[in-house]
Design a protein that fits this description.
Blueprint (H helix, E strand, L loop, with lengths): L1 H6 L13 E4 L8 E4 L6 E4 L5 E3 L5 E3 L3 E4 L1 H4 L11 H6 L5 E6 L4 H16 L5 E6 L4 H6 L7 E6 L2 E7 L4 H9 L3
Parallel strand pairs: 7-8
Antiparallel strand pairs: 1-2, 3-6, 4-5, 7-9, 9-10
Organism: Sesamum angolense
GO cellular component, one term: cytoplasm
GO molecular function: enzyme activator activity; protein-disulfide reductase activity
Length: about 180
């Protein structure tokens, strides 16, 4: 395996003739050949600012660019609720409301975020979805007895109707939502 890794030569992004070309590993470190990949939509090449890392042989080398997925920017962002907007967005809502209580340092919260985003998209128009950062709005969390995060609460007609604690599968949340639609 080490012999294969030693023979791989990856030029810096700026040395590539085109952003759609990529190096192919060869048997000789001096030989470089390029293969044109089909066009990738939603990906862009971002150049790194002089970051230095150590290889497996402890030789410092500069890293080239990095590929960033732009699809993150097009995903539905579940809006945040604060102390000031809680009453109008959640309690006075005409439709059922799903509220995720989370914190940026919480690993399971980061696991459930994509599920909540998907449900927000799936139930758009039928259900409103919001997030409450418990570090920024501790009064809301304590008002509803949130002792563990992530916790998902379902509100209907301004009243708490159901609670799901922990990073649960999408099917669990879907079953819970369907009861109130």
């Amino acid at each position: 395996m080490a012999a294969v890794l030693e023979s791989l030569t990856v030029p810096r992004a700026s040395a590539l003739p085109s952003a759609s070309l990529a190096p192919v590993a060869g048997s000789s470190a001096a030989r470089r050949s390029y293969v044109r990949f089909s066009e990738f939509r939603g990906l862009k090449l971002q150049t790194a600012r002089s970051s230095v890392s150590m290889s497996f042989r402890s030789r410092p080398h500069r890293r080239g660019g990095q590929i960033v997925c732009e699809a993150q920017e097009t995903a539905i962002e579940v809006p945040a609720v604060t102390d000031s907007s809680w009453q109008s967005l959640v309690l006075k809502s005409d439709s059922p409301v799903l509220v995720e209580f989370w914190a940026p340092w919480c690993g399971p919260c980061r696991m459930i975020h994509p599920v909540i985003d998907k449900l927000a998209k799936q139930y758009a128009g039928k259900l409103k979805c919001y997030k409450v950062n418990t570090d920024e709005s501790p009064s809301i969390a304590s008002q509803y007895g949130i002792r563990s995060i992530p916790t998902v609460l379902i509100f209907k007609n301004g009243e708490k109707r159901d609670a799901v604690i922990g990073a649960v599968p999408e099917s669990t949340l879907t079953t819970c939502i369907e009861k109130f639609l």
